Amino acid sequence: MGAYILRRLLLVIPTLIGIMVVNFTLMQFVPGGPVEQAIAIAQGQGDVFGGFSGGNGNEGLTELETGGGDEKYAGSRGLPPEYIAQLEKEFGFDKPPVQRFLGMMWDYFRFDFGDSYFQSQPVVDVVLDKLPVSLTLGLWSLLLSYAISIPLGVAKAVRDGSRFDIWTSGVIIALYAIPGFLFAILLLVLFAGGSYLQIFPLRGLTSDQTVWDTLSFWGKVKDYIWHATLPIIAYTIGGFASLTLLTKNSFLDEIKKQYVVTARAKGLSENRVLYGHVFRNAMLIVIAGFPAAFIGIFFGGSLIIESIFSLDGLGRLGFEAAVARDYPIFFGTLFVFGLIGLIVGILSDLMYVLVDPRIDFERRQG
């Protein structure tokens, strides 16, 4: 197992470099880079999100301002060359792309992610500021998914083919087919002051700061739960459905095995057979997938759901960084999330071995 882990760890670095190379190369061909964003701000064309969220970055600029497309940067006509050169140096565009990439990777491998181009803060501080939102939503969504899916999946497996199994399967498939963002809108319409009830707040994870500061500890807990209920349900819906079916199928596979027949022949009670023997083996694939599931929900937070509920999390951060061409945030978060994802893949394999020591990845590879 040690040799297998070592091989996987050695593959992390080239895999991570490959991910960064592909994304860095693609970003070189995306119009409207950081220099154009700074020029737009300097000329009063709007903030970093105004006029550069799509197209070629020239929307709203006249033919005279763009110089008919002959200028190196859109909208730079009339600006002193010294100012353009200063911007290039500030953003590192006075160097060739290969040199910029190598310098960036050298810094990243030392966990030096630099400062945001447009927020005047270190990248680490910006990410940490958004982290609590994604962390809490991801954690509670995952716990809720497991808390519902495992008992429901076991119940469906035990009652396989029954009316309960058929009806719950229909509901699960219907919920799985509904996109998360559409379900989030439905929740707002039904329970957040849309056309029906106004039980939950419309936006945010907490009340306004003035109200929040006046609340007691338990008042803050209640306020947080009140605000977080709808976003957590919207986050949970997709993972809950797939995890329930996975649990059921895993349980059914174990029930059909010979050791279950033997245990029943020995006179063991049905509960002892199901929960003393079958459950542990059936939960192997579910438990082993916990790290990957957590990272998937945590780092794959839905941008649309965050936008619907006005949540300032990592999903919106990544989108805004891409739109604004804020490369330090975009590539810095990509590097960290890619590294964590690769390590979690190794941890998932270790979880398999921990739950079932019979698994030997080295022998399988041999």
Percentage beta strand:
under 5%
The CATH homologous superfamily of the largest domain is called MetI-like
Please name the CATH topology of the largest domain.
MetI-like fold
Q: Can you count the beta strands?
A: 0
Q: Main beta sheet: strand number and arrangement?
A: none
Q: Work out the radius of gyration.
A: 26 Å
Structural class: mainly alpha
Shape: globular
Question: What would you call the quaternary organization?
Answer: single chain
Query: What share of the residues lie within helices?
Result: over 70%
Q: Give the low-confidence spans.
A: 47-70
Name of the CATH class of the largest domain: Mainly Alpha
The domain count comes to: 2
Distance between the termini: 12 Å
Mean pLDDT: 78
CATH architectural name of the largest domain: Orthogonal Bundle
Number of helices: 18
Write the layout of secondary structure elements.
Blueprint: H1 2-28, H2 34-42, H3 63-66, H4 81-91, H5 97-109, H6 123-158, H7 163-177, H8 180-191, H9 209-214, H10 217-255, H11 258-265, H12 270-282, H13 284-288, H14 290-299, H15 303-308, H16 314-323, H17 327-355, H18 361-365
Helix pairs in contact: 1-17, 2-4, 6-10, 6-14, 7-10, 8-10, 10-12, 14-17, 16-17
